[in-house]
């Protein structure tokens, strides 16, 4: 497996992975699939803001997963806190793709000087919760029944990883 920065040529693969997750998983709390133009807008927005979009390729060069991060919340006081996402092609789940992508996002966030990385995870997704624990994320909250998908109430688990040991934030 090889990790690299995503390019516009990867957008059809990212769209396929995203839309599969919308249709089959509780990870993305919407029933609306996206178009290629929707993914392009998302991709261009991430890149314009200086946020990474990375892909994992298999030995044949096929995109089998992607990850990114962006702002946790829009207010300036959250400027050093990020929320990340990682999605893997269902045919390659369980093979370390998600782990490799999450590890790389943590490295990039640290290198970019961010302080906290947040994971917002469906409360039933024990695999993702366990993966995050492997990297030192701590569960900081569970919000019961705040989402709906597939006709069910969903709990949101918030997990955080403090990326550095700064005792005080930098001056603005």
From TrEMBL:
Catalytic reaction equation(s): L-methionine sulfoximine + acetyl-CoA = N-acetyl-L-methionine sulfoximine + CoA + H(+); L-methionine sulfone + acetyl-CoA = N-acetyl-L-methionine sulfone + CoA + H(+)
Alphabetical list of Gene3D superfamilies matching this protein: 3.40.630.30
CDD domains xref list: NAT_SF
Alphabetized UniProt keyword annotations: Acyltransferase, Transferase
InterPro entries (UniProt xref): Acyl_CoA_acyltransferase, GNAT_dom
Domain of life: Bacteria
PROSITE patterns referenced in this protein's UniProt entry, alphabetically: GNAT
Pfam families: Acetyltransf_1
One GO MF term: acyltransferase activity, transferring groups other than amino-acyl groups
Domain N-acetyltransferase: 1-164
Protein name, UniProt field: Phosphinothricin N-acetyltransferase, putative
Species in which this protein is naturally found: Polymorphum gilvum (strain LMG 25793 / CGMCC 1.9160 / SL003B-26A1)
């Amino acid at each position: 497996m090889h990790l690299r920065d995503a390019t516009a040529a990867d957008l059809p693969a990212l769209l396929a992975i995203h839309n599969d997750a919308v249709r089959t998983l509780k990870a993305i709390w919407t029933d609306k699939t996206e178009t290629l133009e929707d993914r392009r807008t998302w991709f261009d927005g991430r890149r314009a803001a200086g946020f990474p979009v990375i892909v994992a390729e298999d030995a044949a060069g096929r995109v089998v997963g992607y990850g990114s991060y962006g702002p946790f919340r829009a207010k300036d006081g959250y400027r050093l806190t990020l929320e990340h996402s990682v999605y893997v092609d269902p045919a390659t789940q369980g093979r370390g793709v998600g782990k490799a992508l999450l590890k790389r996002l943590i490295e990039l966030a640290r290198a970019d000087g961010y302080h906290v990385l947040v994971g917002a995870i469906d409360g039933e997704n024990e695999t993702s919760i366990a993966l995050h624990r492997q990297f030192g994320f701590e569960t900081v909250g569970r919000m019961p029944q705040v989402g709906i998908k597939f006709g069910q109430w969903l709990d949101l688990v918030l997990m955080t990883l403090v990326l550095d040991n700064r005792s005080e934030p930098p001056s603005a």
